[in-house]
Amino acid sequence: MLLSFVIPVFNEEDSLIELYHEILQHLGQHSYEIIFIDDGSTDSSFAKMKSICEKDSQVKVIRFRRNFGKAAALQKGFEVSRGEIVFTMDADLQDNPIEIPAFLKKIEEGYDLVSGWKRKRHDPWYKTVPSRFFNVVTAAAFRLKLKDYNCGFKAYRRELVKELNLYGEMHRYIPALAHSLGFKVGEIPVAHRARKYGSSKYGFERYLRGFFDLLTVKMVTQYVKSPLYLFGRIGLLSVVLGSFITLYLAILKIFYSMPLSNRPLLSLGILLILGGLQFISLGLISELIINRVNRSSKLPLSIKETINIDPRHQDG
Question: Are 272 and 237 in contact (CB under 8 A)?
């Protein structure tokens, strides 16, 4: 069985050769290809990957002209991969290739996607605490109980990766996307190692981007075909609530002669009705757009050079 390893790389010059040898140690009898995606590295990462390619033709490199982000790197890696099972890993050595057989065993149980669960994380509290909160919120939003959505160590069946279209920070929500498409998603605990070289490339702003992408994924997985269901519900609730408020005030005015000019509640009622009508209109307009425009969310990627990649896959 051919295994593909898709590994985004951004300034990880010290870990690449060590990671390559560790993967080879835990392949068993399986054939392999390793696809490094150089996501705009500014250190000697590309030179290290090139040296590996010169010794092993099963190692491939795609080099972006600038940093497009992890989701874009994974998407391009998925597009060129040929393996029956596709693994994704981080390049910083925190993911341990010793877990490869465990992933394959879980896949054999009938799962289409197996996600790692870093049961014991070797990261500082300011990364682990927000991550726990993120996992709880995401599991509740998509009704898919996983303990670790954000673990980059995953194994996929080929038919799943060919249906994914990632951009932004959507790599964090791959299990939710797979689940929404009807694929079977599972999870296994994996060993997590402390960072050996370098430092994390992610700052606090990733949580803000992740929140907006959570809304995006929620929208595209549940309301992309009928956005009116989302906007219409919000609008209808707002209109009904505003109508009750204005009706209550009308009763006070008509039957009890109470003045309304000094009642802020009147402004709130009118605002809720108008806002609700706008939400309903937005839903209707979205329905018209979806039924008339065939949109694509795929980002254009500028590839500087490739090594051992089929020419058909070189265009961004």
Answer: no
Interval 44-71: pLDDT, tens: 999 999 999 999 999 999 999 999 989 9
Cβ-based burial of 161 (10 A; exposed 0-12, middle 13-18, buried ≥19): buried
As a whole number of angstroms, the distance between CA 87 and CA 248 comes to 60
> Domain span at residue 267?
227-292
What's the Cα-to-Cα distance from 55 to each of 17, 52, 63, 147, rounded to whole Å? Answer: 12, 5, 18, 39
pTM over 0.85: no
pLDDT tens digits for range 222-244:
666 667 777 888 889 999 999 99
3-state secondary structure the chain: CEEEEEEEECCCCCCHHHHHHHHHHCCCCCEEEEEEEECCCCCCHHHHHHHHHHHCCCEEEEEECCCCCHHHHHHHHHHHCCCCEEEECCCCCCECHHHHHHHHHHHHCCCCEEEEEECCCCCCHHHHHHHHHHHHHHHHHHCCCCCCCCCCCEEEEHHHHCCCCCCCCHHHHHHHHHHHCCCCEEEEEECECCCCCCCCCCCCHHHHHHHHHHHHHHHHHHCCCCHHHHHHHHHHHHHHHHHHHHHHHHHHHHHHCCCCCCCHHHHHHHHHHHHHHHHHHHHHHHHHHHHHCCCCCCCCCCEEEEECCCHHHCCC
**Cβ pair 7, 34 in contact under 8 A:** yes
Q: For residues 242 and 144, state if they share a domain.
A: no
Residue 149 belongs to some domain of the structure? yes
**Full 3-state SS string of 88-116:** ECCCCCCECHHHHHHHHHHHHCCCCEEEE
Is position 306 within any domain? no
